[in-house]
């Protein structure tokens, strides 16, 4: 659960994620464009990365939660966070959002061809099934992640596939770890201790 | 009287002995030590009149009466368990969220219309909680189930708390509740913020809120 103290500022949060509040609060569903302009909205529609957000303004404390999942806070200082739209709980009103095409990666995991990016200065709250850990990636030490356990990443990272598909996998005797994402560069990858279902990579 | 002791966030252990009997959700026993008997209970300690009242009210989660000598471990469906100690005050909770409570507590059913009149009835209908809620009063421990753990929010007259009806678990103290709507044009056309109904709790007391909008 996440408690946010508001003094007249605005935050944006997942639609319907308020569980309790005190003080004076206003909930307003965001318009079609979600502050990304018409082109942004169109991109989002094409990419299938739709997200429904509401704007919360007021004075007091608002408590946010969704489906009993864990909440991790990530402070952004002018850098960019890449996160699946379904893992986003709330973020500061002044942060900018957009859609980033990721190509093949999303296809395999059933998360669509694109991911959401959040950039600017402020706090982002992300959801994970179980507590998320941030794993550091430094040049020369690439990190491999199960696509289903991936939540978000930030920093200067290149992403590619590692596959380990052989005749055993084809026969249905795979280890269940045939496909991984490999991150190289400099940054942080957030991983959850649970694996999402779905996608064509259930092998 | 030793109270319930949590084993982890989803299991608890409760001692049973002479004069220390329990009522629990039927089938919620996980393990026990000693000589313990489990009997299905219809009345749940509320007497025949109470049982009929409960049946009519639809607040009739099946209970069992736990007696004997030993200690029993309880848990249900991987849900979080919270122990609430009552010192002579009254806890208002949904019957299906009750995991286990001391048999020395008086249980009853309260018609929500008593609190807030017609709006109480509407509240019950809107939140899907029915028109009745279970009350527990006296001295003893109660364990309630929640999806994702609960937080306690204190209510004071200067500081009313607004709760999403689906995230509401229980409350205690001198609290009046009222359904607050902030329906606007946007809700009508299906573009609402998902927060059109809120439960306003004011007075003196504590409200327990869970980290999810899922019912049990």
TrEMBL record, chain A:
The record's annotation in SUPFAM superfamilies points to: TRAP-like (SSF51219)
- Tell me where the signal peptide lies: none
What Pfam families would the database entry show?
AIM24 (PF01987)
PANTHER family listed in its UniProt record: ALTERED INHERITANCE OF MITOCHONDRIA PROTEIN 24, MITOCHONDRIAL
> What is the protein name for this chain?
Uncharacterized conserved protein, AIM24 family
Give the classification, highest ranks. Bacteria, Bacillati, Actinomycetota, Actinomycetes, Streptosporangiales
Automatic annotation (TrEMBL), chain B:
The record's section on InterPro entries has:
AIM24 (IPR002838), AIM24_sf (IPR036983), Trp_RNA-bd_attenuator-like_dom (IPR016031)
Organism the protein comes from: Thermomonospora echinospora
User: What SUPFAM superfamilies does the annotation carry?
Assistant: TRAP-like (SSF51219)
Q: What is the lineage of its organism?
A: Bacteria, Bacillati, Actinomycetota, Actinomycetes, Streptosporangiales
UniProt name for this protein: Uncharacterized conserved protein, AIM24 family
